[in-house]
Amino acid sequence: MRDVALRAGVSTMTVSRVLSDPGKVSAEVRQRVMAAIEAAGYVPNRLAGSLSSRHSRVIGLIVPSLENSLFAPTIQGISEVLRRNGYQLMVADCGGSDAEEEALVTAFLAQRVAGLVLHNTRHTAAARAMIRRAGIPVVETGTLTPKPLDMVVSYSNHEASRAMTLHLHRLGYRRIGFVSLPAAGNNRALARQGGYRAALAEAGLPPEPRLMLEMPPGLPSGAEAVVRLAEGPVPADAIFFAGDVLAVGALFECQRRGWAVPGRVGIAAFDNIEILGQMVPPITTLRLPRAEIGRRAAEILLDRIQGRSAGPVRVDLGFEIIQRAST
Amino acid sequence: MRDVALRAGVSTMTVSRVLSDPGKVSAEVRQRVMAAIEAAGYVPNRLAGSLSSRHSRVIGLIVPSLENSLFAPTIQGISEVLRRNGYQLMVADCGGSDAEEEALVTAFLAQRVAGLVLHNTRHTAAARAMIRRAGIPVVETGTLTPKPLDMVVSYSNHEASRAMTLHLHRLGYRRIGFVSLPAAGNNRALARQGGYRAALAEAGLPPEPRLMLEMPPGLPSGAEAVVRLAEGPVPADAIFFAGDVLAVGALFECQRRGWAVPGRVGIAAFDNIEILGQMVPPITTLRLPRAEIGRRAAEILLDRIQGRSAGPVRVDLGFEIIQRAST
DNA sequence: GGTTTTGATGATACCGGTATCATGATTCGG
DNA sequence: CCGAATCATGATACCGGTATCATCAAAACC
């Protein structure tokens, strides 16, 4: 920058102004400085800028896994909005561990991020404390948690799960199986189990532990689950797969075994991944606002950072049941 | 940090040493400083550190799309290795546009990243120049490009495509259709087309334009392609879907139409996404080292940054044909 | 016309660390 | 036992920007 200033015959302050608030510099000088910037191939140093001005244009995002394609639309949504506003995104995955999340929060705070997006809604006490002390805005996106750190943008996993269960009941199913990811340490899986139980109670169906299963993520899990529940002691007439690609694995298993879907067993899924609608039969599922969550999360974060809003924010983006041929 | 130094009764230099090179500080003082850090809840400012030391611990990654789950394993691999070494990852997507990539490169250089990972192997002249002037190491990962900017970690899209085409020929197929993503501006799609053509020539099959198709990504594209090629003027007896999830969409379409696979048409895919192996029938495809590419890219980048290596590096991680029931 | 206001630019002091060299104490070799 | 080497620590000058206030000329006001 010093170099640019010399070339243009002005002070570094003027160069800085041209870059951050061009209106404050006379047109003639601005031209000269621009030319000098071009000539020098000058790339400003944001580290120095952020250090001096005490605010950065970097947002930190922590997801449980980068490999899981479910987060991809959300990440894309965040990235889109940030980019349009000249912000950068720093990403890391905590592998579902709270301790790792805490370490990442520390690392991001050390980088002086201007805000954080956390997919998890469970955090260590230390992480909460650090974030509070740092005084930066935070958005949680995993589920509409009742006690957010700061702001939330999501949908209610509880309500979505409840709605789908009631939907299956309305279709006439009476022994509705439920498969989720392990709920230990996963607020989302927990909320979905709760929604399922609440729906059963509302429908007057007795809870049946042998119809509930927790499985690790992955297609083979779904395959295993559909067999266990459809051939178990209490054969399910429909199964609600409330996690990941479990339903896809289940339908493939049915195809392999020649089981009619929904004749032998109805199948419902939780996420609107594209493939569900293309399968034979297409699978009943929920439309979740994955990309929209990312965009809105980024937007309200920027609103706060740029002083366009103040208090806590809670955005419920809802969900929608997509009834298809599999139920 | 000044606060920590006061609490511990030492200079800031000593605090800095405790954090970056504890061996240089006596055990007793180190204890005192650690305690002070703990008590003050001190989180170091990496911006200041990087500015002063002139090197950062942030790596920039630019992919064509964050939404496409094909990049997920690579990103995860990079993230894994970086994290283990105390580095952070900055991610952005350029939507396949060279100009956007250039803008992102500028933004990352402004953040003074220590290195770059670029998935694309095409770059604007300005981007190449900036990177060269910045003097930071770069790894390209999209394909084993013949003229890399600096380092490459990938597999050969040309060879992989050629191998699969020859494989289909060996299985007895003679009218092998080929579907790829639009090759304009995409070196990977281009290389795959080249490999297909080379294989045809080797096998002594005449090139047949009506057996080649370029389709946008997505399941419906695959569905459309399989119909057009299997029912076209020159009906394909096998189709090699060299991109994305095209093959999945194609198989679903066959299921819907009741076409026997491979009886009516053989189907081969390019990527080893999990679902291909679970479908009915499971789809013949290539095993590509997606995650390994990410890990190795990060490793050789860190090797260079930390001075463990110098010259250009070219890592061919190869590929493997997975023959399944669909061909 | 003199004074106040406005606008453009510059001088300077940081932001919060680290590199570098200086300092004083301790250890070591012969 | 003395000078050199080693070790632990500190003082200081940056890294490359921006905030803040000062300066001075031109415009606006009464």
TrEMBL record, chains A, B:
<dbReference type="InterPro" id="IPR028082">
    <property type="entry name" value="Peripla_BP_I"/>
</dbReference>
<protein>
    <submittedName>
        <fullName>LacI family transcriptional regulator</fullName>
    </submittedName>
</protein>
<dbReference type="InterPro" id="IPR010982">
    <property type="entry name" value="Lambda_DNA-bd_dom_sf"/>
</dbReference>
<keyword id="KW-0238">DNA-binding</keyword>
<dbReference type="GO" id="GO:0000976">
    <property type="term" value="F:transcription cis-regulatory region binding"/>
</dbReference>
<dbReference type="InterPro" id="IPR046335">
    <property type="entry name" value="LacI/GalR-like_sensor"/>
</dbReference>
<keyword id="KW-0805">Transcription regulation</keyword>
<dbReference type="GO" id="GO:0003700">
    <property type="term" value="F:DNA-binding transcription factor activity"/>
</dbReference>
<dbReference type="InterPro" id="IPR000843">
    <property type="entry name" value="HTH_LacI"/>
</dbReference>
<keyword id="KW-0804">Transcription</keyword>
<dbReference type="Pfam" id="PF00356">
    <property type="entry name" value="LacI"/>
</dbReference>
<dbReference type="Pfam" id="PF13377">
    <property type="entry name" value="Peripla_BP_3"/>
</dbReference>
<feature type="domain" description="HTH lacI-type">
    <location>
        <begin position="1"/>
        <end position="53"/>
    </location>
</feature>
